[in-house]
Design brief:
Elements lengths: L1 H20 L5 H40 L20 H32 L5 H14 L3 H15 L6 H25 L3 H9 L4 H29 L3 H6 L17 H11 L3 H32 L1
Helix pairs in contact: 2-11, 3-6, 3-8, 3-10, 4-6, 5-6, 6-8, 7-8, 8-11, 10-11
Length: about 300
């Protein structure tokens, strides 16, 4: 018992000595810190409210201006200068998105797997690939369009076609998918890999059965960003896929997506009301794709 009292007394003595060594924070500084925290808290709230307000305003404006202009003539199968039907452009948009994702998604995922799982640290090739990826993300889309026209359309003799536009868009969205996949793989805990190795699994089996399923929600986030860029692209497709408003007969047929369709209608100035109606359909299409991707990501996360 006396020993316990001695120890507790020593601890109190050390605590008192530590308290004497740390100078107290002046009341003025504490007040300034509270004011700074309060100001920053309100700035964050205001920024969030402004972001939500801009989004709601844009969606509301498009819906208010576009829904009254959704006429049956816009949904006829064949396009002409009178009905300016959006159905061929809608089909072309879905096909263009699917083709571009089929090309870009495997390449982006496999490149990210190599960077994170197989490449050695400090490898110069890894630095070169990352610098190239970051550079490609900042290049304007019209530059990709000119490249696609010179290489796919002219050099490979594909002509203005669906496949030329899909390959051009795949190059555009490849850096986005690659970077988001890399970040998702880095976020997977190393204990998952170590546990798999401890059970006797090899490197390849660990990557495809443990790491990739765990990172799939983050990978799908990159795919959602890629879909948004594909659906809204115009400059690159004008130079590669052309502006023909018809359902393609093959991958080498010229096409027109919804974004290009809207651009041409607004540029002509004769069917501005149809442009707003097309914008509503494009908005609904993007929301459906995003909701589907989010649902798949949620199911994968719950299964993991």
């Amino acid at each position: 018992m006396p020993d316990g009292i001695t120890v507790n007394g020593a601890e109190r003595g050390l605590a008192d000595a530590g308290a004497r060594m740390i100078p107290p924070i002046p009341a003025q500084n504490r007040t300034g810190a509270r004011v700074f925290a309060l100001v920053m808290r309100w700035l964050v709230r205001i920024a969030a409210l402004l972001t939500a307000a801009v989004l709601i305003f844009l969606i509301g404006y498009i819906l208010v201006m576009g829904i009254p202009n959704l006429k049956p003539s816009l949904f006829e199968w064949t396009y002409n200068s009178e009905n300016v039907s959006l159905v061929p452009a809608l089909i072309n948009t879905v096909l263009m998105t699917l083709f571009a994702l089929v090309i870009a998604t495997p390449l982006g995922i496999f490149a990210a797997v190599w960077l994170v799982e197989y490449a050695k640290r400090g490898n110069k090739l890894v630095k070169l690939v990352r610098i190239t990826t970051e550079t490609l993300q900042g290049i304007p889309s019209i530059v990709f369009g000119l490249f696609g026209m010179l290489f796919f359309v002219t050099q490979l003799h594909w002509g203005y076609s669906l496949i030329a536009g899909a390959f051009t868009l795949a190059i555009m969205v490849l850096p986005v998918i690659m970077r988001t996949t890399e970040e998702a793989l880095l976020a997977v805990p190393d204990s998952y890999r170590e546990g798999s190795f401890g059970l006797g699994a090899g490197k390849l089996r660990t990557v495809f059965t443990i790491v990739l399923p765990s990172a799939m929600p983050g990978i799908l986030s990159g795919v959602i960003l890629a879909v948004g860029r594909i659906v809204g692209e115009t400059a690159a497709l004008i130079y590669t896929a052309s502006t023909v408003a018809a359902v393609p007969e093959s991958v080498f047929s010229s096409t027109r997506t919804l974004a290009v369709h809207m651009y041409l209608l607004s540029n002509e100035g004769l069917h501005v009301d149809a442009t707003y109606g097309t914008a509503v359909v494009l908005l609904v299409l993007v929301l459906l794709i995003n909701c589907l991707s989010s649902f798949i990501a949620g199911k994968l996360a719950k299964g993991k």
